[in-house]
Amino acid sequence: MTDNLKSSSSRSANPKWAIKNGSFAVLRPEQPVLHGWMVIEGDRITYIGEEEPQLEEGVQVVDGTHLFFMPGLINTHGHTAMSLLRGYGDDMVLQEWLQEKMWPMEAKFTSNDVYWGTSLSVLEMLKGGTTTFLDMYDHMDQVGKVVTESGMRAALTRGVIGLCPEDVQRHKLNEAIQFAKDWHGQADGRITAMISPHAPYTCPPDFIEKFVQAAHDLDLPMHTHMSETKAEVEQNVRDYGTRPAIHLEKLGMFSRPTILAHAVHLTDEEIDILAKHHVTVSHNPGSNLKLASGVARVTDMMQAGITVSLGTDSAASNNNLDMFEEMRLAALIHKGVSGDPTAVPAAEALRMGTIYGAQSLFLEGVGALEAGMKADFIAVNTDQAHFLPRTDFISHVIYSASAKDVEHVWVDGKQVVKHGSCLTLDEERIRREAQAAFEGLLSR
Ligand SMILES: N[C@@H](CCSC[C@H]1O[C@@H](n2cnc3c(=O)[nH]cnc32)[C@H](O)[C@@H]1O)C(=O)O
Ligand SMILES: [Zn+2]
User: Fold this and answer.
1) Which keywords does the record carry (predicted)?
2) According to the model, what pLDDT value does residue 33 have?
3) 26 CA distance to ligand 2 middle (Å)
4) Which pLDDT does position 337 carry in this prediction?
5) pLDDT for the residue 10
6) Whole-angstrom distance, CA of residue 126 vs CA of residue 144
7) How does pLDDT run across 69-88, given as a tens digit for each residue?
8) Percent of the chain with pLDDT over 70
């Protein structure tokens, strides 16, 4: 499943180059920040250390003074095309927000809308230092296209709401399977696929079982929304006699590698079930706060050994795709609700936004600045008032920084953002087309 990340990229190999005088977030317990050198060859980091490496003549060396290098951020849950609905329906209860505002508008989405909505999100994410994202949506061929063009890395999945007649269910399931077959391993291996029933409250049990079977057949991970609100947990107990984690375990979902979005309302027993099956969780603090869904038991989950990463959810419930903000929220909220200022320390928040994100998506070889890892990394401009004094850059990144501080971004060894401008996408056109797409949706 992850072989595509291990093999080297088929894109024409970039020459070897090096960074000197950089500060690097290596996040090792004994040494979170390393000052020195990093060498990149093609799509890989081949050296990182304090010692000057032996470099052949002609190798380009770039000066990294005033830059803080970090692994690219990994956004593990979202619906990217929904950036077209940013600001359309705020301050509402989840079920009403979905049923009255989002779903009627989404029913009108064409492939063109998804293309421009996704482009808008990808532009925002890349410029804000996110190098990998998970997207659960439909018209997913368009998303695959945008990912290919942008140079970004993504775990893509055709999410399916099963509240429809059987023939429509079958059609949607087939679409999900076909998408996974067509796109897994595409874009030089930057795209991986998953299989996603939208949620236990939108997909009947026998329908979820068909997704589990498909994930087995295709040897792919699964993704779903689970226990975002109290109301949906109560509904699950009413309809199926059990809480959602037990319900999904019974349906066989956790026999596949699975990443759950939200997982806010969990009992101790459910936490044990998720830990036992190595289920991973995408914690979405911004979206959970905005929809007043509750506060996930992040420290309890992590103590139980569950890998917890961070997601923005869509720009309709966030309302931006700034992963710095999610890291900061994660570091602050769990201190606030527990009364324990040692909960989710800064370095742990940064791991949630990076390496735990890769692990949550079952991706190997991304998410850390280490020799042998994919060269997915970002450079933050530290030559700014809110980055001084030069003490603890990990603290500054979590408690003081934002997406706007990102200066450069590389994915798979290729630079995609330079001095804050996206090199792979036409920014002006995307802004124009996204606005036009939204106006089109309103007028139809
Ligand atoms: N339209 C699709 C399903 C798309 S999956 C993605 C869905 O997730 C929905 N969504 C967005 N945010 C949330 C959330 O916070 N909780 C649950 N669903 C959400 C979103 O409105 C979208 O319909 C079908 O053909 O079945
Ligand atoms: Zn969602």
Assistant:
1) Hydrolase, Metal-binding, Zinc
2) 98
3) 30
4) 96
5) 37
6) 16
7) 999 999 999 999 999 999 99
8) 97
Phi, psi of 39 (to 5 degrees): -115, 135
State the pairing for strand pair 31-41/44-49. antiparallel
Could you name the CATH architecture of 3-72+368-422? Roll (2.30)
pLDDT (0 to 100) of residue 14: 61
Q: Please, which residues bridge with residue 156 across strands?
A: 135, 193
Look-up of token digits 């992590």? 302
User: Is residue 429 part of an annotated ligand binding site?
Assistant: no
For CATH 2.30.40.10, list the domain ranges present in the chain.
Answer: 3-72+368-422
Ligand closest in space to the Cα of 228:
1
Beta partners for residue 301, in sequence order = none
Q: Start-end ranges of CATH 3.20.20.140 in the chain?
A: 73-360
Q: Which two tokens stand for residue 110?
A: 């064409």
- Which CATH architecture best describes the domain 73-360? Alpha-Beta Barrel (3.20)
Q: Is 228 annotated as belonging to a binding site?
A: yes
Does the pLDDT of residue 6 top 90, yes or no? no
